Structure formats: structure tokens, C-alpha cells
Amino acid sequence: MSGIQHRIAARVVPHIPPGAVVNLGIGIPTLVADHLPDGHGAHLQTENGLLGVGPTPAPDQIDPDLVHAGKQPVTAQPGASYFASSASFGMIRGGHVEVAVLGALQIDATGRIANWAIPGKPVLGVGGAMDLLVGARTVVVATTHTAKDGSPKIVPECTFPLTAQRPVDVVVTEAATFRTDSAGLVLVDLAAGITLDWVHEHTAAPFRVELEDALLPQAGH
């Protein structure tokens, strides 16, 4: 993973309440596990059946039987629990996951995301993203601000298939953080070295500006 992707993952950490049950999606979200401070206490869950995911293992510590939903190696924290994928999805659909961190291909002006299919390319399936959008109490998106061709990922309307109708709660990029409310996107944070003009130039969807300390409430609130 690139330095930009790690910066995005680090910017997600303040949005994870200590002690929360958190699902990390495939891609940039999985890097969040490597940036949580010691003693944070978040319980990381993966939908293939593990609660207590730890940081990425060193090359000489990889256990081929210990992987997350994206089939990449993980570690397990002391006291981790293993269970069937059906039980994992029961946790998600039952509202027991406090925060889900997902990647996105596009985010629309209301905060809805497309993250599972690109028209004209092979479809691997929606995975757990649809369930997490519907079942998780808070959904945070971790994504680059623009696509590889430089085009904005935050757009007035998604041209890729939507993952679900539910808007996400927070969008975190390497440049900015947005919250969503009933009126749409709200810019609440700029990364160091980023100007408001840059965000306007690289964001196609309209947004309001209310720069603030954008921490989420503590777990259980």
C-alpha cells in the first residue's frame, strides 16, 4: 500500500471510538488496524469469522490460515474469537457492529456510495458492503479524493451501481473529511497543507463548509 493510503487510514483513527466493535472493509480500510494506538481497545471484526483482528503480520509471522475477508494475512489479538461466517453476518445485520470502515469508488452528493462494481468490468460480488451499510450504526468511508485518472470520486450522482440507499456518516480522504446530514455533504476538516480551493477544485459534488473537531461520540452513545 502507498503512503497516501496509509495517511488516509491514519486519518480514520479519530473516528473510531475506543472499545467499539469495528468492521474494516477491503483495501485502505484494512490499514486502519496498523494505525490504532496501543491500548485503544477497538475490537476489529472481519465477516469471514474473526473478532479481535490485529495489525498486519511481519513476513516471517504470516499464518496462511489467518486471513481477513479480502484473503490477506492478519494477526489475532489475545482473546480473539472465531466463528462461522453466518454468525458474523448475524452480528452485522443485528446492529452489533458500531463502526464500519468501507472503501468507495464514488460518493454522491447525499453520501451514498458505489463500491462494488464498475460497468464493463467483471463483477466479483458485493461482498459484505451492502450488509454493513444497512446494519452498522456508523459508516466511515476511507478513499482517495480522486480516481487514478485524476477525476473526482465525490460526485453529484454516482454513475456506478449504488451499494445501498443508506448514506454514509463520514468520508475521509487524504485531503479532507466530510460529514453527511439531511442536506448533504459538510466539509469539517482539511488535511495539513490542503486549501479549501483545492478541495473545491477536486470535488464535483456541492458541499457546505463547517470546519470543526470532527471526532465521533464514544462507543455506546
Layout of helices and strands, plus pairs?
Blueprint: H1 3-12, E1 21-24, E2 43-46, E3 50-53, E4 76-82, H2 85-93, E5 99-102, E6 106-107, E7 113-114, H3 129-135, E8 138-142, E9 170-172, E10 176-181, E11 184-190, H4 196-202, E12 207-209
Parallel strand pairs: 1-2, 1-5, 5-8, 8-9, 11-12
Antiparallel strand pairs: 2-3, 3-4, 6-7, 9-10, 10-11
Q: Helix-strand pattern, N to C? A: HEEEEHEEEHEEEEHE
What integer value in Å does the Rg equal? 17 Å
Helix content: 10-25%
The overall pLDDT, averaged over residues, is 92
What is the architecture at the second tier of CATH? 3-Layer(aba) Sandwich
Q: Give the CATH level 1 class.
A: Alpha Beta
Protein name: 3-oxoacid CoA-transferase subunit B
Keywords: Transferase
GO molecular function, one term: CoA-transferase activity
Family: Belongs to the 3-oxoacid CoA-transferase subunit B family.
